[in-house]
Design goal:
- With about 625 residues, this protein is of the alpha/beta class.
- Helix 10 (about 220-240) packs parallel to helix 12 (about 270-295).
- A seven-stranded mixed beta sheet has the order 7-6-5-8-9-11-10, sandwiched between helices.
- The two termini are about 50 Å apart.
- The chain has helices at about 1-25, 35-55, 60-70, 85-95, 100-115, 120-145, 150-170, 180-185, 185-215, 220-240, 245-265, 270-295, 305-330, 335-350, 365-385, 445-455, 490-500, 500-505, 515-525, 550-555, 575-585; strands spanning about 390-395, 400-405, 415-420, 420-430, 460-465, 480-485, 510-515, 530-535, 560-570, 590-595, 605-615.
- Strand 3 and strand 4 (about 420-430) form a beta hairpin.
Length: about 625
């Protein structure tokens, strides 16, 4: 049992530490968006399914050979193709780099449990989940802050080599049992396991997406929901008595409506409050889904069938959130819908067990649960009307949800472009005022003053602008100027041209370059920009790869002598000034913060900008991010 226990524990540890490691490597290649992690979760769930299916049919000698062969993929370094759909590019890159080793890791726990003939194999299941938790939590707290990505890959490869040796030793000593488990599992049970697991993994992905849309897609924010997901598995399988249908049913009846209401009206509440409620709801609903899984678990003879059904459900939940939802919905409707589905399954399971003999005689708990279910179903419909007097267009793709709305206001009717909960541009509908720069880009803002007052020795100005939004900054281009926008989301350019006139009305020459700004700037020859503007944040989420020292070097190469960089740092959750000061110090520029007040009569919001230029005041307290080190702990508000 010793080699098997070592292989199971080490395999589970490596299985979860590689997830944030691989996803972090992919983030800068796909714009730093929240969907990168969601798609990675889908891949890991799919690879888990492949590993469990393999575990059901494999033999010890075959397993030893494949363990050794999988070492050819070390060290894991995803190298994606940037052509076509980003989601498929991520999936292909992960499959080519980490797919084989990950499937071997995923197969270990069910293999060891089947080969060992344990009387209570689910305790080893809980042990492997505890090891998974250790691996997951170690990444943001022990690995990411201290090790470069290259060192992480090397260390993980060394650990995987030890795992291969332990796994091969366990396979040599194995005494395989008969594998009739899949045939022995009734289809109603299989479908129940699949549905419960799909709700669990779908809720994990959807809740993580909600959180990262408003802060940043970084490992420690990925880890919190995933740690909750694993913790609920450990609790319900290792300590099944802690799951009470009555208690968690009542909690779910309160939590589900709260989360659904906040999904619609949470913009006025502190981000920490909204996040805490969503995480609390996630814990409660995962306890329900996984608790029902534990209550319906089979005996040892059907163990691999159970594993296979759970893995299949996990993969289906990931497919729904990462692939189907962006194509089916124009909002993040999957989170409340999955909450509703979990409530339905929980009530169904209680009815199947004979607890409820009819809704007419159901206890208060059941009625409260069904009431919460109604709110969950209604919430996606409510979001269609929330957030504006009239929604002109709404779209969703890999990069998030965009919405164009018309507002009637005493200061003047206007049209806004919002990404998530954050406005990315506004324009007055009155033709006489439509060229007025609004939102964060008013005449008195740092960026407005920079364009208005920058020396023009040749009479013209060249500007690079990362982030298009509604195209408001095109208003500052004069005749002969060249403004080049970099925009990764194709829907943004389409909406800016269709619903706003800033680009069409501009006096200068306007160019829009599609793709991630850092990659595009890195591909271009050293430029001659007088001003470079960084304003590429989606919702309040920040693409951290645009604020690293290495990225600052790219910005510096594209500046003319005497040029300046302006970085928009208005953010509800993060204080980014120290990070920008660190970048400025690294590239030899000074940095100063410029605040501008709101002016509702002109449609202007308060804004915070950092101006990086020669001769500015020397940087103060600084925090330098690099491509290998981007921790958010020190910049959380």
């Amino acid at each position: 049992m010793a080699p098997g226990l070592i292989a199971a524990a080490l395999g589970a540890f490596l299985l979860f530490i590689v997830q944030p490691m691989a996803a972090k490597q992919l983030l800068p290649l796909f714009g730093g968006g929240a969907a990168v992690w969601t798609v990675c979760l889908l891949f890991f769930q799919g690879a888990l399914l492949a590993g469990y299916a393999y575990a059901h049919f494999t033999r010890p000698r075959v397993h030893i050979a494949l363990l050794i062969a999988s070492c050819a993929a070390l060290p894991p370094a995803p190298n994606p193709s940037m052509e076509g759909d980003p989601a498929w590019g991520i999936l292909r890159a992960l499959a080519a780099s980490i797919g084989g080793p990950y499937a071997m890791l995923a197969s270990t726990s069910p293999l060891i449990q089947r080969w060992s003939g344990l009387a209570n194999p689910f305790r080893l299941y809980a042990v492997s989940n505890a090891a998974s938790m250790a691996g997951l939590l170690s990444y943001p707290f022990l690995v990411e802050p201290w090790m470069s990505l290259a060192a992480q890959r090397t260390a993980w490869s060394a650990g995987y080599t030890v795992f291969v040796l332990a796994g091969a030793w366990a396979a040599v000593r194995a005494k395989p049992a008969a594998t009739e488990g899949l045939r022995a599992a009734p289809w109603p049970d299989m479908l129940t396991w699949i549905a419960l697991a799909a709700c669990g993994s779908g809720l994990l992905a959807a809740a993580t997406n909600e959180i990262c849309q408003e802060v940043a897609p970084v490992p420690f924010l990925w880890v919190i929901p995933l740690a909750i997901y694993l913790a609920t598995f450990v609790i319900v399988f290792a300590l099944p008595g802690l799951y009470s249908r009555a208690a968690f049913g009542l909690l779910a009846a309160a939590a589900i409506p709260a989360s659904c209401v906040l999904t619609v009206t949470g913009t006025s509440l502190p981000l920490k409050t909204v996040t805490a409620v969503h995480l609390g709801t996630l814990f409660v609903c995962l306890m329900v889904a996984h608790g029902e899984l534990a209550r319906s678990r089979p005996g040892a003879s059907r163990l691999t069938a159970f594993y296979l059904a759970v893995a299949a459900g996990g993969a289906l939940g990931g497919v729904f959130v990462a692939i189907a939802a962006p194509r089916l919905f124009s909002t993040f409707a999957e989170f409340p819908l999955l909450l509703a589905a979990t409530a339905v399954l929980a009530v169904t399971q209680r009815c199947r067990s004979g607890e409820f003999r009819g809704l007419g005689r159901a206890p208060l708990l059941t009625r409260a649960t069904l009431g919460g279910l109604g709110v969950a179903i209604a919430a996606p419909l409510m979001t269609l009307e929330a957030g504006g007097n009239h929604v002109v267009e709404r779209s969703r793709n890999f990069y998030g949800v965009l919405k164009v709305s018309d507002w009637k206001d005493k200061e003047g009717d206007r049209r806004t472009l919002a990404h998530g909960r954050t406005t990315h541009g506004a324009q007055f509908l009155d033709p006489a005022r439509r060229r007025t720069p609004t939102a964060y880009y008013g005449w008195a803002s740092a960026v407005g003053l920079a364009f208005d007052q920058h020396p023009r020795p040749g009479g013209t100005l060249r500007a690079g602008i990362i982030g298009l939004g509604a195209g408001t900054l095109a208003r500052y281009a004069r005749r002969g100027d060249v403004f080049r926008f970099y925009e990764i989301n194709p829907d943004v350019e389409r909406m800016a041209r269709r619903h706003f006139t800033f680009l069409a009305d501009s006096e200068g020459r306007i160019e829009v370059t599609a793709g991630d700004a850092r990659l595009r700037l890195g591909e271009e020859p050293p430029g001659d920009y007088d001003i470079l503007v960084v304003d590429a944040f989606s919702s309040d989420s920040i693409p951290t790869h645009l604020l690293t020292a290495e990225c600052g070097e790219i910005y510096r190469r594209h500046l003319r002598k005497g040029g300046k960089i302006l970085i928009h740092i208005s953010n509800r959750a993060l204080e980014l000034e120290p990070v920008v000061r660190g970048m400025a110090a690294h590239i030899g520029l000074g940095a100063r913060r410029v605040e501008s007040p709101a002016d509702p009569s002109q449609g202007v919001y308060s804004a915070s900008w950092m101006v990086l230029e020669p001769g500015a005041p020397a940087p103060g307290a600084a925090l330098t991010w690099t491509d290998d080190f981007t921790s958010l702990w020190r910049v959380l508000k």
